Amino acid sequence: MNQAKKLIYFDNAATTFPKPQTVYDRMDQFIRSEAANPGRSGHRMAVEAEAVIDRARNEIAKLFGVKDPHRIVFTLNCTDALNMAIKGALENGGHVVSTQLEHNSVLRPLNALVKAGRISLTRVPHSKEGVVDPADIRKSIKKETRLVVMTHASNVTGSLQPVREIGKIVRETDAWFLVDAAQTAGCFPIDVEADAIDLLAFPGHKALFGPMGTGGLYVGPRVELSAWREGGTGGDSKSPTQPEELPFFLEGGTPNAVGIAGLSEGVRFILQEGLPMIRQHEFHLISRLREGLGAIPAVTLYGPMDAKHTTSTLAFNLKGVEPQEIGAILDQSFGIAARAGLHCAPMIHQSMGTYPAGCLRFSPGYFNTREEVDCAVQAIREIQKNFSNP
Ligand SMILES: Cc1ncc(COP(=O)(O)O)c(C=O)c1O
Question: CA 320: distance to chain centroid?
Answer without folding.
Answer: 32
